[in-house]
Design a protein that fits this description.
Oligomer: single chain
Number of helices: 1
Radius of gyration: 23 Å
Helix content: under 10%
Largest sheet: 10 strands, mixed
Length: about 300
Amino acid sequence: MKTKLLFFTLFALLSNVEVKAFEVNSIYYNITSTADLTVTVTSGSSKYLGSVTIPKTVNYNGSTYSVTSIGNRAFYDCTGLTSITIPNSVTKIDLWAFSGCEGLTSITIPNSVTSIGEGAFSGCEGLTSITIPNSVTSIGNYAFSACWSLTSISIPNSVTSIGSYAFNGCGGLTSITIPNSVTSIGTNPFSNCGSLESIIVEAGNTKYDSRDNCNAIIKTSSNTLIAGYKNTIIPNSVTEIGGYAFVNCTGLTSITIPNSVTSIGEYAFADCTGLTSISIPNSVTSIGQSAFIRCI
């Protein structure tokens, strides 16, 4: 009896897998819910090319499914993809969904999307502009990392969290405003942004600030500078320079650390290859691992 039950269980599972993946008009889908009739776009047997329009709904086996997400690595490394149209039924762009799509130059994210996953657009080297709608609440780690050609980005005040290295290496960015809605910021989200001249945390943010026009992000509750850039002036109210705060800031040539600072975190100034002058006050009693590594 147990053997027969196991057989039927395995048969049901295998049958379920067989109907989960399908292709319509050269776009591949996985069924995410048979009850709600929803699907996610997934990677196909060959890479997507040219211009792709994702429909709002798709028919399969007599049922109409809503397309609600772009799945993990769905368009990963599709270097021949030149444009993509995402319907307003999509609520989530998942992990590494468009990573490595070098041929994309612009993309419009519909205002139905609430989250942009880790690495979603990383390595989209040709991406010059992108609009993040005010429906988005979270931007994942590395979401736009290595988008070298991106020259401007507007973070809407719906966003509550920005992940680690979210915009790492976006060399064309010159200014950033962090809205007062943001309550969580990962490890230096704008590291290696060599052109960044101005970063401002909006007044009224209860978690972070950029006091005294310092061109930096400071965690208010602990007076910790968590992200600094080439023209940052460290206020004398800061007590800690956080880990990775100035990592890869190659444009930084000199910095004055005020005597309010008592600790410098790990890798705080790592790879600041242009740094020629720094004075550490006697108030500093703790310096983290590799804080100044490769500062040649």
